[in-house]
Design brief:
- It is a single chain.
- This protein starts with a strand and ends in a 40-residue tail after the last helix.
- The chain has 267 residues and is of the alpha/beta class.
- The protein has seven helices and seven strands.
- It has helices spanning 14-22, 57-63, 82-103, 141-160, 179-184, 188-200, 223-227; strands spanning 5-9, 29-34, 47-51, 69-72, 107-113, 163-169, 206-211.
- It has one domain (5-258): NAD(P)-binding Rossmann-like Domain (Rossmann fold, 3-Layer(aba) Sandwich), CATH 3.40.50.720.
- The chain binds 1,4-dihydronicotinamide adenine dinucleotide and D-galactaro-1,5-lactone.
- Residues 77-78, 113-115, 171, 267 line the site of D-galactaro-1,5-lactone.
């Protein structure tokens, strides 16, 4: 299925900026939404820019007009004050899903996080790695908000038939920064491949998928992502000699487990 117009929330953020050129297609318009300023359209680039908050139902209603899929990246991407997490990540995700329902948008991809299961022990599921569907064990209020995002996605699929994919993203940056990320890294190119696989699913469903590359030191399973056609072409191992020496943490969430609850952290 070719998707003509895709709304991306949080498009001015790290992932949004990485995905913008990678999701561009001649037959596709990217509608980019963020509170923060967005780069103006480059010559020939098919983008529409929306500045405002995903917490604003009227803005979201207008942003969903003529949209065939939403990629919801917007929100707080690390530990923070509970009231902010609640407002932006939990209430905000409900606002996005409500806007999708009212506008009849059939497909939504939600950016979840490894921190929804941050307290899961590395290796607890055996050699196949931790499955995508493992029940949440959040490591922070942030992780709780991602578990809530997944639950909201499930509700909106079951009630309204929206196709919802929740991506438990490991660490998506240009390069892995430490030993933990040698296991949990997802290359930006692989992230785009995974998003394309989510956009291409034909049967409406609900799924929780790991968003990682096919890393030599994998600790989570790609089974669910591969079931919808994702094929990773990257492996963090090629950066292994560039990351500082260190040990793999005991838990998936790594340093987030030491973050004081409710305190903004710089990780
Ligand atoms: P980021 O913090 O760089 O970007 C988030 C964007 O959301 C920012 O541009 C911000 O202005 C925007 N935003 C915040 N509140 C908003 C609001 N009320 N209305 C509209 N826009 C708002 O985060 P990043 O790295 O781009 O992550 C994107 C998503 O993926 C986040 O939901 C994050 O939790 C999730 N994620 C990212 C990972 C990564 O490795 N980059 C790993 C796991 C999850
Ligand atoms: C996340 O959920 C964050 O959004 C990202 O900034 C990284 O900290 C990532 O997890 C990680 O665990 O490396």
């Amino acid at each position: 299925m070719s998707i003509h117009r895709v709304l991306i929330t949080g498009a001015a953020g790290n992932l949004g900026r990485l995905m913008r050129p990678r999701l561009a297609r001649p037959d596709r318009v990217l509608r980019l939404l963020d509170l923060a300023p967005l780069e103006p359209a480059a010559p020939g680039e098919q983008v529409e820019l929306v500045t405002g908050s995903l917490n604003d139902p009227d803005l979201m209603a207008a942003a969903c007009v003529d949209v065939e899929a939403i990629i919801h990246l917007g929100g707080i991407s690390r530990e923070d004050d509970w009231a902010r997490i609640l407002e932006v990540n939990i209430d905000g995700t409900r606002t996005v899903l409500e806007a999708a329902r009212i506008a009849g948008v059939p497909k939504v991809v939600l950016a979840s996080s490894n921190h929804a299961v941050g307290y899961r022990r590395i290796g607890e599921a055996g050699p196949g790695g931790l499955p995508g569907e493992s029940t949440p064990r959040p490591d922070t209020y942030y992780g709780v908000s991602k578990a809530a995002l997944e639950a909201l996605g499930s509700l909106y699929h079951e009630r309204f038939g929206i196709d919802v994919s929740c991506l438990r993203i490991g660490s998506c940056f240009d390069e892995p920064a430490d030993v933990r990320q040698l296991s949990l890294w997802m290359s930006p190119d692989d992230c785009a491949r995974l998003l394309e696989a989510c956009l291409a699913t034909e049967e409406p469903g609900y799924r929780v998928l790991w968003g990682v590359s096919a890393n030599t030191r994998a600790v989570v399973s790609l089974r669910e992502a591969e079931a919808i056609g994702y094929r990773s072409l990257d492996d963090a191992e090629r950066f292994a000699d560039r990351v500082p020496p260190g040990a793999l943490p005991e838990h998936i969430g790594g340093a987030f487990l030491e973050t004081p609850l409710g305190q903004a952290n710089p990780i």
